[in-house]
Design goal:
- About 25% of the residues lie in helices and about 30% in strands.
- It is built from 10 helices and 20 strands.
- The strands form 3 sheets. Strands 10, 11, 12, 13, 14, 15, 16, 17, 18, 19 and 20 form an 11-stranded mixed β-sheet that branches.
- Strand 17 and strand 18 (about 325-335) form a beta hairpin.
- It is globular and about 70 Å long.
């Protein structure tokens, strides 16, 4: 299976909002796209990255130099579509060489209309973003490549900023759906879809949960009327400071002592629900090789991450929830920059992490967190049964 656009001589340019320009070749669809420029450090898993709803609104640069080697297939899709606003690679693979491949990556990008660029110095762009921070950007090819540099830069600067942006309504399911439990049934978990990945639903079901996936605009009253055994908040794109309705929902459910587990965006929303703030990271954590320390055990996990915001909380000591939920500790933190990577509530059944325990694609170090969630729910069920006797 050969790659269709590797040899393309069609010019393209990546323009950053500070005026930096990187000229290369069109990759995937030609045209114009705008978004926040970020980099992902995974050497594998580009298809999982492309189909992760958490990347909505972002132009993703892959730091690994050779992309497309294994092609694409339907099995590795983490959602129903590609979500990235644009795609930046250095050297597209000349051929696809994997028995599982059903198409080439560039054909897939072209078919789905994802505008990309190749043959630029991605190391230079990565270093620039690390120095200056994630910023608005645009890729211009075809007729848009011929626009003046000033016109291209104006369009980039007029694009939406990720700060203050709510994207949950763009990526969430419209209609609720349920996936039945596998094996011994534990109970029913209500999942707020803020951009959930297919693997997350699968792993929850494998732990004995009937997984009821709900649209992001449901109310606390509706969730509680379902009488769920637990609540789960998924990953997703956007600024947690722009998700007041989700915070209100979570506070109401936590006050009913319903066990809660949140990942990624869900971790930031738990932080807000407890009464703490969030902030935008300079360039975020994106990739499948992010080292995290679990404080209670001293264990280091290599994790899959994609986030540009974090909970604003000191990593040491116990903290009192300003919203009255008792004691809270930072359970995990990043070994790269000491950013909060997990929260543990000591007086209510709730915890969260700032990474992807479903590990798609990525290491399986954190998969045990689904077991921890199952054990928390079983323990809560036993406590309630005891209270009723």
């Amino acid at each position: 299976m050969s790659s269709s656009s590797f040899g393309s001589a069609t010019p393209a340019v990546l323009v950053l909002e500070d005026g930096s320009r990187y000229v290369g070749r069109a990759y995937g669809a030609t045209g114009k796209t705008l978004g926040e420029a970020v980099f992902a450090t995974g050497m594998t898993g580009y298809q999982e990255t492309l189909t992760d709803p958490s990347y909505a609104g972002q132009i993703v640069l892959m730091t690994a130099p050779h992309i497309g080697n294994t092609g694409v297939n339907n099995e590795d899709m983490e959602s129903k579509k590609i979500w990235v606003a644009g795609f930046v690679v250095r050297d597209p693979s000349r051929v696809v060489s994997n028995f599982r491949a059903e198409d080439s990556l560039d054909n897939d990008l072209t078919t789905t209309g994802v505008v990309g660029i190749s043959n630029i110095d991605t190391r230079a762009v990565t270093r620039h973003i690390r120095d200056k921070g994630a910023m608005r950007a645009g890729i211009f090819s075809g007729e848009f490549f011929d626009l003046s540099e000033g016109d291209q830069l104006d369009q980039v600067r007029q694009g939406p900023s990720m700060k203050g942006r709510n994207l949950s309504h763009d990526v969430s399911t419209i209609d609720p759906y349920e996936v039945p439990a596998q094996g011994d049934r534990v109970g029913r978990v209500a999942v707020l879809d803020l951009g959930i990945k297919t693997s997350t639903v699968k792993y929850l079901a494998e732990r004995g949960f009937d997984v009821l996936v709900l649209p992001q605009n449901v109310t606390a009253e509706h969730v509680l009327s379902l009488n769920p055994d637990a609540l789960f908040f998924s990953n997703g794109p956007g600024d947690p400071a722009a998700s007041d309705d989700h915070v209100t929902l979570l506070r109401a459910v936590l006050r009913e002592n319903v066990p809660f587990f949140g990942i990624c965006f869900g971790n930031q929303l738990l932080g807000r629900a407890l009464g703490f703030g969030t902030y935008k990271l300079p360039f975020g954590h994106r990739g499948i090789n992010q080292p995290v320390l679990e404080k209670s055990t001293g264990r280091v996990e290599i994790t899959s991450q994609n986030h540009g915001f974090a909970v604003d909380l000191p990593i040491e000591g116990e903290h009192q929830s300003p919203e009255g939920f008792g004691r809270v500790t930072v359970s995990h933190y990043s070994l790269n920059d000491q950013v909060v990577e997990g929260l543990a509530c000591l007086d209510i059944p709730a915890f969260s992490v700032q990474y992807h325990p479903e590990a798609a694609a990525g290491p399986n170090d954190a998969n045990h967190l689904f077991d921890r969630f199952r054990d928390l729910v079983i323990s809560n069920q036993a406590n309630r049964a005891g209270d009723n006797n």
